[in-house]
Amino acid sequence: MFNFKKLKELEELYERGEVLEPECFSGEYYVVVPWFPWLSLEIMKHRKAVDADCKGDNVILKGTRFGHFQLELKNDHLLINYDQPQNSMVMRRVIDRVRRLPDGRIVGKLYYKILDREIFLMFFEMRKKDG
To answer: pTM for the complete prediction?
Structure first.
Protein backbone atom coordinates (compact mmCIF):
# COMPACT_ATOMS: atom_id res chain seq x y z
CA MET A 1 0.00 0.00 0.00
CA PHE A 2 1.15 3.52 -0.75
CA ASN A 3 2.83 5.29 2.15
CA PHE A 4 2.59 9.10 2.27
CA LYS A 5 5.37 9.21 4.87
CA LYS A 6 7.77 7.70 2.31
CA LEU A 7 6.64 10.24 -0.29
CA LYS A 8 7.35 13.06 2.18
CA GLU A 9 10.80 11.57 2.88
CA LEU A 10 11.47 11.37 -0.86
CA GLU A 11 10.44 15.00 -1.29
CA GLU A 12 12.86 16.01 1.48
CA LEU A 13 15.70 14.01 -0.12
CA TYR A 14 14.90 15.56 -3.50
CA GLU A 15 15.05 19.08 -2.04
CA ARG A 16 18.52 18.34 -0.63
CA GLY A 17 19.64 16.75 -3.91
CA GLU A 18 22.47 17.90 -6.13
CA VAL A 19 21.75 19.85 -9.31
CA LEU A 20 23.39 18.02 -12.19
CA GLU A 21 24.98 19.61 -15.24
CA PRO A 22 23.41 18.56 -18.57
CA GLU A 23 26.83 17.33 -19.72
CA CYS A 24 26.75 14.67 -16.96
CA PHE A 25 24.27 12.67 -19.02
CA SER A 26 25.06 10.58 -22.06
CA GLY A 27 23.74 7.21 -23.13
CA GLU A 28 20.56 5.46 -22.08
CA TYR A 29 18.74 5.52 -18.77
CA TYR A 30 15.91 3.26 -17.65
CA VAL A 31 12.97 5.18 -16.23
CA VAL A 32 11.63 3.47 -13.11
CA VAL A 33 8.54 4.45 -11.13
CA PRO A 34 8.71 2.32 -7.97
CA TRP A 35 6.40 4.53 -5.88
CA PHE A 36 3.18 3.19 -7.41
CA PRO A 37 3.22 -0.56 -6.62
CA TRP A 38 -0.54 -1.04 -7.20
CA LEU A 39 -0.27 0.14 -10.78
CA SER A 40 1.06 -2.13 -13.51
CA LEU A 41 3.95 -0.10 -14.83
CA GLU A 42 4.42 -2.17 -17.97
CA ILE A 43 3.10 0.69 -20.11
CA MET A 44 5.51 3.11 -18.45
CA LYS A 45 8.68 1.10 -18.99
CA HIS A 46 10.83 3.20 -21.22
CA ARG A 47 14.30 4.65 -21.55
CA LYS A 48 15.70 8.11 -22.04
CA ALA A 49 18.42 8.17 -24.69
CA VAL A 50 20.70 11.22 -24.44
CA ASP A 51 23.36 12.23 -26.98
CA ALA A 52 26.55 14.23 -26.44
CA ASP A 53 24.71 17.48 -27.38
CA CYS A 54 22.34 17.06 -24.41
CA LYS A 55 19.44 16.22 -26.71
CA GLY A 56 17.43 13.04 -26.49
CA ASP A 57 14.31 10.99 -26.93
CA ASN A 58 12.18 8.65 -24.91
CA VAL A 59 12.49 5.11 -26.26
CA ILE A 60 10.05 2.22 -25.89
CA LEU A 61 9.92 -1.33 -27.19
CA LYS A 62 12.73 -2.00 -29.64
CA GLY A 63 13.62 1.54 -30.57
CA THR A 64 10.36 3.43 -31.01
CA ARG A 65 11.24 7.04 -30.20
CA PHE A 66 8.93 9.75 -28.93
CA GLY A 67 9.10 12.82 -26.73
CA HIS A 68 12.16 14.63 -28.05
CA PHE A 69 13.86 16.72 -25.37
CA GLN A 70 16.73 19.04 -24.54
CA LEU A 71 18.59 18.95 -21.20
CA GLU A 72 18.94 22.42 -19.66
CA LEU A 73 20.27 23.74 -16.38
CA LYS A 74 17.52 25.80 -14.70
CA ASN A 75 18.28 27.36 -11.31
CA ASP A 76 17.71 24.55 -8.83
CA HIS A 77 17.29 21.53 -11.13
CA LEU A 78 18.17 19.87 -14.40
CA LEU A 79 15.24 20.38 -16.76
CA ILE A 80 14.26 17.77 -19.33
CA ASN A 81 12.57 20.20 -21.71
CA TYR A 82 9.97 18.62 -24.01
CA ASP A 83 8.85 21.98 -25.40
CA GLN A 84 10.42 21.14 -28.76
CA PRO A 85 8.91 21.91 -32.20
CA GLN A 86 8.84 18.24 -33.30
CA ASN A 87 6.66 17.21 -30.32
CA SER A 88 2.87 17.28 -30.20
CA MET A 89 1.22 19.95 -28.07
CA VAL A 90 0.36 17.26 -25.50
CA MET A 91 4.01 16.20 -25.18
CA ARG A 92 5.27 19.78 -25.11
CA ARG A 93 3.42 20.30 -21.80
CA VAL A 94 5.46 17.59 -20.01
CA ILE A 95 8.05 18.94 -17.59
CA ASP A 96 10.69 16.78 -15.88
CA ARG A 97 12.98 18.19 -13.19
CA VAL A 98 15.91 16.01 -12.12
CA ARG A 99 18.35 15.97 -9.19
CA ARG A 100 20.83 13.50 -7.71
CA LEU A 101 19.83 12.42 -4.21
CA PRO A 102 22.41 12.23 -1.40
CA ASP A 103 22.47 8.41 -1.82
CA GLY A 104 23.43 8.75 -5.52
CA ARG A 105 20.06 7.96 -7.12
CA ILE A 106 18.97 10.22 -9.97
CA VAL A 107 15.35 11.18 -9.31
CA GLY A 108 12.99 13.36 -11.27
CA LYS A 109 9.66 15.00 -10.69
CA LEU A 110 7.15 14.78 -13.52
CA TYR A 111 4.80 17.72 -14.01
CA TYR A 112 2.18 18.50 -16.63
CA LYS A 113 1.41 22.10 -17.57
CA ILE A 114 -2.28 23.07 -17.73
CA LEU A 115 -3.30 26.70 -18.23
CA ASP A 116 0.18 27.96 -17.25
CA ARG A 117 0.07 25.93 -14.02
CA GLU A 118 2.39 22.99 -13.41
CA ILE A 119 0.63 19.98 -11.88
CA PHE A 120 2.86 17.46 -10.08
CA LEU A 121 2.11 13.90 -11.22
CA MET A 122 4.83 11.63 -9.80
CA PHE A 123 8.45 10.94 -8.99
CA PHE A 124 10.59 8.73 -11.22
CA GLU A 125 14.12 7.39 -11.06
CA MET A 126 16.65 7.25 -13.92
CA ARG A 127 19.03 4.29 -13.82
CA LYS A 128 21.99 4.15 -16.21
CA LYS A 129 21.70 1.27 -18.68
CA ASP A 130 24.80 -0.92 -18.52
CA GLY A 131 26.71 -1.61 -21.71
So the answer is: 0.84
